[in-house]
Amino acid sequence: MKTYKYLFLLVGLSILGCSDLEEEPIGLLAPDGFFKTTNDIQTAANAAFGHMTHEDFWGRKMSLTLMLRGDMVAIGDPTTSSRRIDHDVFTVQADNGMIDGYWLRVYQMIAAANQAIAGAEDVGAADEIKNPVTAQAYFARAFAYFHLVRQFGDIPYITEPVKDLAAASAISKTPAAEVYANIIADLQFAKTWLPNTQVARSIPAKSAAHSYLALVYLTMGDFPNAYAEAKGVIDNEGTYNLGLEPDFQDLFDSSKSNSSKEPIFLLDFIGASNGDDGRDYQAALTGLRDDEQYGLGGGWSVGVPSLEVYNRWDGRDYRKAVSLDTTGVFNGVTQPYTVFKESGAGRGVNRPHIAKYTRAIGTTATGNGRGSETNYMMMRYAEVLLIAAEALNETSPGSSEAEGYVNRVRARARSGNGSMFPADVSGLSQDDFRTMVLEERKWELAFEFKRWYDIARRRMGAQVFSDSGLEGAKPNFDATRDYLFPLLSDELARNPNLLPQNPGY
């Protein structure tokens, strides 16, 4: 359960440009005189994490965008908002409402983190006292920028609280390489000062910074450093209190995941919300329309796996049963996915639906699941093992160590199936191992908002969006354009210093 106090440092305007600069910004918290103790630093840092559970970010907009752009989830309800459909079929324009929703929200996270970092300078405490708290803000800032740079490339990079609105409205973009360097620096500070463990996995510990460094390096293609950081986490498994959850299903049970050793950093929805603050939409967006089986009032069938995800996923893999619902209940009768629509799913579709965010989301879950107590794992230990395997294969192909990391993940996937499927990995060539570990990430992390980033960093679009892909051909996908999102047209109009637009938009 979260231990945060929320202080939302709402800037009240787009920090990258605003047509209402003459208005008094509402809620702008100046650090002057406020920061006196480490508790004040904590309050400001908490605001950055508070923004992460807003509907604009992981509640709905960013999370759904990432899910739809991958090759495993497609629109199930064709009447849903066109701004969602555009991401599924790669017809996104520079005024897309999904991007518009979370662009400012992410910069509000950054603004809150910047306030905490700047305010810490005014707190007269020893580094050993205040830096472990300030490190949370450094982690939050790195986390926010890591999402932005992967989506937009060159972006405005801001490290100070906004005081000069005129200067802020004329800011230019920072090259992506420099943004990555700053992300690494923030995570290194966090890794140095965060404690080995925290009272909850929703508060970043040293393991979170350590693991994200591994993922950042992997994304950059710096495989030696990616391996070194992932190996550092693995070597400190006991110190960091990490391990694989024995039962894969328990990772997605809100009553059990809080006590699990596998989550490294998560966003904790606590079943309470203030409007869209803290409200979780994934059960609604991914759940089966009119389904009665979980007492949620059914979902909306918006993000639904393609049928080929179900067809190609071997049924001996325990993760398939955990990840997918193949039956629904309509008017008290259990029906198979082949007749979902005919059985009462209305605007639904005859395909298995995502089960990870509907089965056990807490006793307070109401309104199609929006009152969820789900813990969304931004990073978990299984991913660290797979990062180590992928990176080591690039530097030392044929390594039994790399094989061992994958086999450890696969051993759990065999849970209760009475066979050796998925089989242990052994003797693969470097190319075949690379293909295998990316496939392993696809199934292990299915519907956990990772797949699009894997497709983009490995430039797999031409392959996965072809006729042979899980969703079939996506003719609108353009490899010269679609690995990046468009910068918002409103932002470009207000601040020409953000030009040029990303290619193809």
TrEMBL record:
Family in the record: Belongs to the SusD family.
Record-annotated RagB/SusD domain positions: 321-505
Lineage summary: Bacteria, Pseudomonadati, Bacteroidota, Flavobacteriia, Flavobacteriales
Signal peptide segment: none
The keyword Signal is annotated on this UniProt entry: yes
Identification of the protein by name: Starch-binding associating with outer membrane
Superkingdom in the source lineage: Bacteria
Domain SusD-like N-terminal intervals: 92-218
Keyword terms: Cell outer membrane, Membrane, Signal
PROSITE patterns found in the cross-reference section: PROKAR_LIPOPROTEIN
Pfam families listed in its UniProt record: SusD-like_3 (PF14322), SusD_RagB (PF07980)
GO CC terms of this entry: cell outer membrane
Presence of keyword Signal: yes
Intracellular or extracellular location(s): Cell outer membrane
Organism: Algibacter luteus
